[in-house]
What does this fold into?
Amino acid sequence: MTESRDGIRELIGEVLARRDNDPRYRSSVARGVEASTEHYAFPWVLRFVDDERAKTAMLRAAGLCAAYRDIPQANKPLGASLRDLSLIRSGKKSLDPDAPDVIASRLASLQEQDLEQVSATIRRLLDLARGSGVGVDFYRIGRLLSRWGNGYTEASQSVRASVLGDYYGAWTHDAPANSSTNQNQEN
It folds into this structure.
């Protein structure tokens, strides 16, 4: 019996382990965030890719993880981290759907974006998180991108809706209490 490997978990684990102490590695892998420079990341990322269809998602996820080493790894869904960021930025105790901030505005169109666009949007959201102390789960970002799909299947639509749902608290509430439940749903 052969054991299947979890390439995303292995890849992001390696990036997290090396991004702070290996500048050459970090620089090369961070270039995987864009199609025009992704070839610099090939030697470091492609050995984790078992399926050609996952290549772009893995390059983007590893690139984001390497490029944003100043954002700590956290164990909560991306939407929940972005909700925390919105609350910190606004100084409010709850989100106001009638007055969406820049994060909510960007998330509103997330479901309609293809993989390249969603990677760019996540990159812009991570730019907003810099210096805030809010962490993100880079493993979950990798899983999200690898399951993004085309938006036509029910599975793809569910993945795409999860970020906005987590942001508004439909599936998570003040993670860590519900983070293990959500982690199991994503794996």
Residues 173-187 have pLDDT under 50 and may be disordered. The chain has ten helices and no strands. Residues 78 and 117 are 16 Å apart (CA to CA).
